[in-house]
Amino acid sequence: VEAVHLIAEGKAPRIPQPKEGATYEGIQKKENAEISWDQPAAALHNWIRGHDKVPGAWATIDGQVVTFYGSSLLDTSVPAGQELAIKGASRPGLVTKNGLVVFGNDGKMVLVRNLQFEDGKMIPASKYFSADETTALELTEEEKKMAEDIR
């Protein structure tokens, strides 16, 4: 009760918190979230997972900043996939049916499920090479009639 009264009266002591020993980490910025590839797979996974969703761990692929989301450690044999060069990585990633497999410097693997491009477009990592393909929507006669009725 005494502390509350001191605060209300504006007489409470003000002791600045020392910076030494503080555990608070400031707000992470996107420019500080670039992935350093010279690490074991567990560290890569923790970096990606730790920056998931904001600000998002990122790397440069084909000259474009690509943000990685949804990582998990992969403890299987190397899956089949299409190679993808990642700037700074000692080994290319693999675009597989389950996502993008990246390698730590210990040879172990991390599976990344989603990728986001600079324009904000997010895709499943497994669709990286088919991201530009678009298919036209074909309506049946019944659907065309329904569309006209709705209009």
TrEMBL record:
Gene3D superfamilies: Formyl transferase, C-terminal domain. Residues 29-130 form the Formyl transferase C-terminal domain. One of its GO terms (molecular function) is catalytic activity. InterPro entries: Formyl_trans_C, Formyl_trans_C_sf, Formyl_transferase-like_C_sf. CDD domains: FDH_Hydrolase_C. Pfam families: Formyl_trans_C. This is AL1L2 dehydrogenase. The lineage of its organism: Eukaryota, Metazoa, Chordata, Craniata, Vertebrata. The gene is Aldh1l2_0.
